[in-house]
Amino acid sequence: MCRHVAYVGPEEPLGKLLVEPPHALYRQSWAPQRQRHGTVNADGFGVGWYAEGDPVPARYRRAGPIWADLSFADLGRVVRSTALLAAVRDATLSGADAEAAAAPFAAGPWLFSHNGAVKGWPASLAPLVPTLPAVDLLSMEARNDSALVWALVLARLRGGDDEGQALADTVLEVAEAAPGSRLNLLLTNGETITATAWGDTLWYLTRPGGGTVVASEPYDDDPHWQEVPDRTLLAASGTDVLLTPLKDPDAPLAPSRPKEPRT
What we know:
The protein is of the alpha+beta class. Helices cover 19% and strands 28% of the residues. It contains six helices and 13 strands.
């Protein structure tokens, strides 16, 4: 269900990251190599990027497959940015929301994408709806599981949580309400990338020349790509990547052990 990629680092043309590599997101729309669920990502696509001096990202989204958009190659060739987030979509359920259901979702300085599916949607997340401000529900761009997961993340961000805490708490909350969900979330503010690996593949590449890429799967054969373990929170800048394990609420409790004294 979907493939996505984010980048922060030195300025690059969008196409150098999304179109030109031999296994770029463009090709992953019809020939993903590591996708565990679904085979073709043709239910929409989108890319968001940041212009110098403007903290609010621009977006270009369409309801159809990326390969059918003849303008996208030109856009990717001439538009340059130091940060982007892009996704190709394999819809969990068909719907009428068209490009509004395509990631990235956006608010303020943030771009967001969800690779996965919420088990039992929509009934499974109904108990979480009262935790959201009414204006957030009325402002949802689409009527799909990803849009509601984004609303849960955004409420935490607006409440003062940092990006890592907002993603981690949302994943654990949704996983508890809807066991078996796949919740690979991807978030950028134009300077950092935060992501979760929860039920599908996630990789990162810290490029020798500068810049960090976080993606559902590698876009080339560079041996420096590293796979992120499942149930992990990733926090990255243009030069560093930090991985933190996430506790699975469905996992059995481990036998208690005495705590080691802190030094």
